Amino acid sequence: MNRAALPGLLVVLGFGSFILLALVLLFLAGDGLPLERLAGRQVRAILTFTLTQSLLSTGLSIAGALPLAVLLHRHRAFVGRDTLVRLLALPLALPPLVAVLGILEIWGRSGVVSAGLQSLGFDVRLDVFGLQGVLLAHVFFNLPLAARLMLAHLERQPATTFRLADQLGLVGWARFTRVEWPLLRPSLGGVAGLIMMLCIGSFTIVLTLGGGPRAATFEVAIYQALRFDFAPSLAALYTLIQLVLAGTLLFLLSVVGGAPQDRAGALPEEAGFTRPVPVWGVGLLILTTLFLLAPLAALVAGGLVAEWGRLIQNPRLWSAAMTSGVIAACAGLVAVATAYALLVARSRGFGANGIAKHLFEAGYGAVGSAVLAVPPIVLGAGWFLALRGVPAQTLLAGGLVMLVNALMALPFVLRVMAPAFAASERRYGALSSSLGLTGWRRFVRVDLPVLARPFAVALAFALVLSVGDLGAAAIFGAYDLVTLPVLILNLMGSYRTGDAAGVAFLLGVFVFALIAMAERSHKVLG
Amino acid sequence: MALTSFRPLVPLALAAGLVLPIAASAQDRVLTIYTYDSFVADWGLGPVWQELFEAQCDCTIEWVAPGDGVAVLSRLRFEGGSTDADVVLGLDQNLIAEADATGLIAPHETDLSELDLPVEWTSESFVPFDYGYFAVMYDAESVENPPTSLAELIEGGDEPLVIQDPRTSTPGLGMVLWMKSVYGEEAGERWEQLSDRILTVTPGWSEAYGLFTSGETPMVLSYTTSAAYHMLVEEEERYQALAFDEGHYMQIEVGAAIAGSDDLDLAREFLAFMISAEAQNALPTNHWMLPVRAPQEPLPAPFQRLVEPERALLIDAQTIADERGAWIDEWLDAMSQ
């Protein structure tokens, strides 16, 4: 171990204790865990709903994504294919709250679909609140994710397999059962596990579309126990259950093997049909596109008709934008800086082998993925309690939200930076060492110039995640910390949907601008 | 090098300082009032009272509205002795025993002799400033057979109803107590039956009422007096309150001074102001509740046409303080099925 390991070690220790302290604070705050509630109806109801909705969401997402991925893999030449593949990446970047607003515009009781059905003479109004609304939103987010992952998985298979299938004249159903399904099946466990994980930890969607106590995940229950009842011990109990649930799933996921990497659309077009897309395929493509585009279009429409004249004079909007901007910028920088420290330590800090290296690797993995098991709500909850009665709460709350957001972004930031960093180490590592460049000087002279683009891309991802986060920010909302998503939630709450749509539109535009910039840099990177 | 990971904290500290509200200058007297959100909405009573009170107090009112009424109490309990509040406004009689138990409330020391409430008022910490009766508001153009009793609401019809969460909202809590006073031990079962027609449960009154006025639900839990708003301001007759045979649960909204206030005199001045003739005159047509002192002029005509409950239901505050947790659990259990 040498000095290069120090910052990375500090990061692992710092974030590690940040997470552990959050849990300790939460468990110490109450007066003992109300274990008798474990057998109560509420815990059972929350558990049932959490499992039901996540299983259904996962099943529906995969069922919808499977034919889509196959279709996109088989047909590579139809008009709009690339746009559709890119569209599949959009929901992932969209702040959940923004998407919820779009979904309400389409599927709500006075939404586009209800209005359409009524003008056709049907006396029905859709009821989006409840399980159906939660499923709708989860499929909106996860069907595209599943489709991209499966498409990427197919594209990683040797092209010869598909060429052989072409020569054998395998088309349609036979091609699916003989070639595509056997190839895809091993990846399904990973994809399903990842989606299930995301749905079990769902907060914003369940909070806004659940329609009250009959639909709560443990994340929502933790939030409500703290903000509604001020019952830290109940929040601690729910946290424990959530940790066990997420931990079990993570374990199962590690057994079936993780989700495949998302590299859809990155491969050159080689195999694939040039024949026209079959009728069912055209129908499916149109439906999927409509399903994904309609809420976005509704958002844009809602954003355009918002009363901007009044909105931009609202000081709360500007103060929220400022708060969000500062928090996101700092969270992004912290995430990138800590990721850099981790990568440096991992690559330069330790000898080839040894206990220290193994320990650090374990810490690196734990911190990098901790946020999957210990969600922002839980981190927020622990520190939320610690802030009671402390001066300058709003400032401290902002700092804590920033740290939680940085931690949330870390896995994604690492995923962008690690390959670029490794490549740069291979190229310049030996040279830098022989020139005796270390520490700060190596950062300024070598790493920063070489890695500026991947750093910027990672920063953009972190900004997008942080600026759209509701979980941590909602918990700390009690300290008058109002970020843009919290403002949207408040506006929705007071049923100023027009204003909420306006703010959501602003947030959406900001996020997409960042994504577009990042995408362009990414392309330049190759 | 070790510094790189902490450097970003410096701009955060600097920039976040800019976001903090600028403290009022020292010579101003500031009265911080915690209340519920719809009270301080642009169209609410808050701005009206603020103008009236600031004209006479040589002070500035700062509102903090964390949500509906029960959320205000949760916030007070959470902040404990470190709270910034001078006055808490908009809890109701159901919560006063619990609020008293926090030890945060100062005796009101206000002259209540002018009060004209349908019930005797004995609390020495809380000053009532309005009252009303919970009722289900309905849209006559969407509800074909308006229920005439709580039982009919529970058993018949499929028009959806929106209620509020009793963990955050005083109307939501009021409905739990209403069901409890009518059905006692069977309240849980009756809630399970009612839950079929509940479209959604909102955290507060304003969210629920927003769903009603925008046409998302034809029925909403509110007050008998809400109808007066539609008749008087919108000249609209279609939105009316349902009269229920079992009687209506009553709500008395209260304010109190916080014992730890920097300016307890000013806080008490505000309590006295709430029940002054001028504040009470402004109340019915801005807050759509009934005044706690006999009006100097008769209330506008639509107020004479409101549902008059045959029986006013009320559970005493101490019982509620003892049972609220259990009753809300009962409600949660029924609603999560």
Q: Layout of helices and strands, plus pairs?
A:
The complex is a heterodimer of chains A (526) and B (337).
Chain A: H1 5-29, H2 41-74, H3 81-87, H4 90-93, H5 96-107, H6 112-119, H7 131-156, H8 159-167, H9 172-200, H10 204-209, H11 218-227, H12 232-256, H13 279-305, H14 308-311, H15 315-348, H16 355-373, H17 376-386, H18 393-434, H19 439-467, H20 471-476, H21 484-493, H22 497-525
Helix pairs in contact in A: 1-12, 1-15, 1-16, 1-17, 2-7, 2-9, 5-7, 5-13, 5-22, 7-9, 9-12, 11-12, 13-22, 15-18, 15-19, 15-21, 16-18, 17-18, 18-19, 19-22, 21-22
Chain B: H1 9-19, E1 30-36, H2 45-57, E2 60-67, H3 69-79, E3 87-92, H4 96-101, E4 127-139, H5 150-155, E5 161-164, H6 170-183, H7 187-195, E6 198-202, H8 205-213, E7 219-223, H9 226-232, E8 239-241, E9 248-257, H10 264-274, H11 277-282, H12 284-287, E10 290-291, H13 301-304, E11 312-313, H14 317-335
Parallel strand pairs in B: 1-2, 1-3, 5-6, 5-7, 9-11
Antiparallel strand pairs in B: 3-9, 4-7, 4-8, 4-9, 4-10
Helix pairs in contact in B: 6-14, 7-14
